[in-house]
Amino acid sequence: MVVQAFEYILRDGRKALIRSPRDEDIQGVLDFLYISAGETDFIVRYPEECSKFTPEGEKALFDRINSSENEAMLVCLVDGKVAGNCHISWNNRLKTRHRASVAVALLREFWNQGIGTRLTQEMIRIAEENENILQIELEFVEGNSRARALYEKMGFRICGIKPNAIRLKDGTLLNMYSMIREIAR
Question: What is the pTM of this model?
């Protein structure tokens, strides 16, 4: 699904553009995936795992998502750089079409600018426009207090824990927390 582009002002006064990804964003998204994976242990991949992502693969992904009726991806561009992205998806199976899954990620240099809030708000808006969706689901890694605070501010609550879901290179095991946000209908 293609989402209409919009601009807004970041906390530091810069302009941000949020829109569905386009072919011209391919290299920026690839760079974003690699950089974000190395900035924090709260992303579920390491930078070296990003080598599997190719321009051709990203183009196919963008084309598939942008033509889908069951998912959307947004990129946030600041000064032409991919600062963050998010994704929402759901299915049409009768028993599970009431659930949408969301993911949001930002580059560290753009933390505390309101981008995570704005991307999450847009994912909630998309879910609320689909009459079948009754709840939005997401996950965050243990220790990511910033993500937890954002999601709780946006109305999500913890509904489950996956013990030892993440294993870091040094052997540290981290839990993964599941959250939901119910949509009143």
Answer: 0.94
